[in-house]
Amino acid sequence: MVRGKIIPVTIIYLLIMIFSGQTLSQFQRPQRRYQRYIGRRPPRKSKTDRRAMIEQQQKEAEEQAIKEALQATRQQWKKILPRLRKVSELRKQAGMAPEIKDAAWITKKKTIKYYDGPVTTQERIYEDWSWKKSWEQKTELTQQEKACEDLIILLDRDSATDVQKKEMMDALRRARKEAEKELAKAQRKLQEVLNHRQIAIMFMMGWLD
User: Fold this and answer.
1) Hey, which bits of the chain come out as E strands?
2) Residue 96, class by beta-carbon neighbours within 10 Å (0-12 exposed, 13-18 middle, 19+ buried)?
């Protein structure tokens, strides 16, 4: 009689164990999938990285548009592209100048640490105009970028004299002139790999003088 009671109890116990095991595995499976997703998810890009990515995409789109306008073959484009990029870089150096970032109300996040954990809040502050420097994230500056940076630093100093300002302006002027000479050479090299129709197109677009 006792033996007959033990068998149903054992069966019930086994069923409970099986059900519990399935429930646990069902609970753990989404967790494991989420952990694998977190592991595969790329790190969040910073504001600077996102800006660089957008600029790169814009550059690639512009280059593709130029290729189509020139009707360049694949082999010809291999010769054109590096010379085009050289001209593009020297054009920036010849006209080296910072942009002005307008004054505006901006929203900034602020994290405060409490005993039970950090709390992030947002606050609106008025940010005055500032210089927007395209070379800000570079480790090594060109001669033109360095001259422009030095002049910006000098202008922020109330004690700067007119003589110092003139010297810095002359340095930037010389750097721009040097870039203009290099730009003319780069434009001639670019012209060497273009036909007459392509030269006319690049002249019209401002890539050639």
Assistant:
1) 99-101, 104-114, 117-127, 130-132
2) buried
Domain boundaries, the chain: 42-204
Q: Which amino acid is at 54?
A: I
Query: Do residues 94 and 175 lie in contact, with contact meaning Cβ atoms separated by under 8 Å?
Result: no
Residue-wise pLDDT tens digits, 120-156: 666 665 555 556 666 666 667 788 888 888 888 888 8
Contacts of 123 (CB under 8 A, 6+ apart): 107, 108, 110
Contact partners, residue 176, CB within 8 Å, separation at least 6: 93, 94, 95, 96, 144
**Cα–Cα distance list, 181 to 18, 94, 165 (Å):** 82, 9, 25
Q: Where are the alpha helices (DSSP H) in 41-73?
A: 47-70
Among 206, 194, 200, 183, CA closest to 87 = 183
Among left, alpha and beta (phi > 0; psi -120 to 50; other), residue 201 is alpha
